[in-house]
Amino acid sequence: MPVLFITAAAVGIGAKYQPRIDPSDFQSQISNPYFPLVPGTRYKYVETVFGETFNREITVTSETKTIMGVKCVSVHDVLTNKGEVREDTYDWYAQDKKGAVWYFGEATIEIKPGRRRSSAGSWEAGVGGALPGIVMPAKAKACEPYQQEYYPNWAEDPSRPEHLPTAFAPGNGRCWNPVPRKGGTRHRLASSDQRRLARL
Q: I need a labelling partner for 164 at 20 to 30 A (CA). Which of 34, 66, 131, 137 fits?
């Protein structure tokens, strides 16, 4: 199972972002080998942030949501800390016929200390100037930037692969394809993360 290794940091796209969205350009299934979303699939992760351990469970649901005329797959993402829910999010994705996976928004609830709830991170493409972005291109090209999401003054995450996949064989004999990618938000320049996506 090759793995795509992704590093997110801050970069800029530069030109005004205005994607052309035609519902007829999209398909019903998401089959990108680095970002397949098969209903019923569940992923579990353990994350460490500033010394605290968080558990994340991501479930690809059978539910869909139509955004800008495009039928999107709904993915449920729940983050817990010490058994308590900290974030409860539904993300919406769709794949175009060329194989690129687009991110059309999210409905999120962040539960802060004192049980205060915030939905400030929620956005939907086509509403309030928000636009969809490509979360995984059909074929990643070195140093070619692409926009993951765009919500003015809130979520404007551009990314780019640092270099093309390089195959090597770890101890189990499988072939892994690491592709570092830079990404970030002009409004959150200090943020960064690392992601590993398995090619199925």
A: 131
pLDDT one-digit tens code per residue, 35-60:
899 999 999 999 998 899 999 999 99
Amino acid, res. 165: P
pLDDT tens track for 126-172: 998 888 988 888 876 554 454 455 455 544 444 444 443 433 333 33
- Domain residues for the domain of 100 are 3-198
Q: Residue 101: count other Cβ atoms within 10 Å of its Cβ.
A: 21
Sign of CA dihedral 131, 191, 1, 143: positive
Q: 195: helix, coil or strand?
A: strand
The count of structural domains within the chain is 1
Spatial separation of the C-alpha atoms in residues 169 and 30, rounded to whole Å = 28
Closest CA to 155 of 122, 117, 118: 122
Give the burial class of 168: count Cβ atoms within 10 A of its Cβ; 0-12 exposed, 13-18 middle, 19 or more buried: exposed
Query: CB 91: neighbour CB atoms within 10 A?
Result: 19
Q: CA–CA separation, 24 vs 123, rounded Å? A: 23
Q: Any alpha helices (H) in the chain, and if so which ranges?
A: none
